[in-house]
Amino acid sequence: MRVRLFVDDESSPRSEFEPPGTFNLDTHDLADGPHTLIVQAGEDDGTVGVERIPFTVRNGPGIALFGLREGETVRGRISLLVNAFESRVGDDFEPARAETPAPIPTWAFVLSLVVAAWAMYYVVSEYRGHAEEIAAAAPLPVATPPSTTTTPDAAPPASAALGEQIYGNYCSACHQLTGEGLPGVFPPLKGDPVVTASDPSEHVRIILNGLLGKEIDDFAYASPMPAFGSQLSDAEIEAVVNHERRAWGNAAPSVTAEDVARLRTQATAP
Ligand code: HEC
Predict the structure, then answer these.
(1) How many CB atoms lie within 10 A of CB 186?
(2) Residue 173 in contact with ligand 1 by CB distance below 6 A
């Protein structure tokens, strides 16, 4: 069997050998552009197999052109930017020669504007999220409790709604709306011994004076429970304590605003 290698329509083969064999194709005498390598394999009885492999030669410099696109319709005078860069085997890559000083396209400006706008939005929303968290955890005087109009002897349903509202505003940031706290960070109030104790005094005192360093269920919480004595009225503490004592399946005796007032004076008088 004989193998013959042709390039394009050349009449004489570039190489002829018994397979298997190797052949070095020198592309320098081929013009830049599309070509075809034709491999003919002839059997001894005369039948010939042919394989055609199209390929492209580029030995000359690469060409970059800006200002005219394929098939573009133009009129008048147009300004073209042309650059050419070499890419021969063995050439060191030289970015300065390869780079064409094309203008920055408009979409790049638009994209950078979009990215900058998103970054600003992100910073503002993060900041706002934190500000809200801090306000909920330790309410500042600015955040006036929405309950200042309620009187201490408000009807029970109003007081229940108030308790839920105060819990949402002042306590849920740490103890969570589910009353389950955050494991290892804030203790749960659901099923908590203080919250479900039949005597609510300790429960009220903790809200009035805060708490630090108590082990709850054999766990020492690192952060303190803030004191709410100066921020919440007797009626508000009554409402939130009774909310905690009835919510999440808790069912403990309730407290009155008078109890809170009594515990408050005890607490302030050492
Ligand atoms: C900044 C977070 C934070 C906020 C806000 C907060 N707590 Fe606490 N609370 C804690 C931490 C921490 C502890 C545990 C402190 C310790 O063990 O020393 C705790 C403990 C308690 C306890 C005692 C539980 C026990 O078994 O001793 C009660 C009751 C309680 N909080 C109720 C409330 C109520 C009611 C509010 C809202 C008025 C509230 N907490 C708001 C963090 C918070």
Answers:
(1) 17
(2) yes
Name every residue whose Cβ is closer than 8 Å to that of residue 95 and which is 6 or more positions away in sequence. Answer: none
Atom of ligand 1 nearest to the CA of 173: 5
Ligand 1 touching residue 213 (CB < 6 A): yes
Residue 252 Cβ inside 6 Å of ligand 1? The answer reads no
> Is this prediction's pTM over 0.85?
no
pLDDT of res. 89: 62
Asked whether the beta carbons of 162 and 239 are under 8 A apart, the reply is yes
- Is ligand 1 within 6 A of the CB of residue 208? no
Selection from 209, 192, 206, 169 nearest residue 252 by Cα: 192
C-beta 174 within 6 A of ligand 1: yes
Hey, which of 175, 189, 255 would you mutate to test ligand 1's pocket, going by the most ligand atoms within 8 Å of its Cβ?
175
Decide whether any atom of ligand 1 lies within 6 Å of the 212 Cβ: yes
Homologous superfamily in CATH for domain 156-268: Cytochrome c-like domain (1.10.760.10)
Q: How far is the CA of 168 from the centre of ligand 1 (A)?
A: 13
153 pLDDT tier (thresholds 50, 70, 90): very low
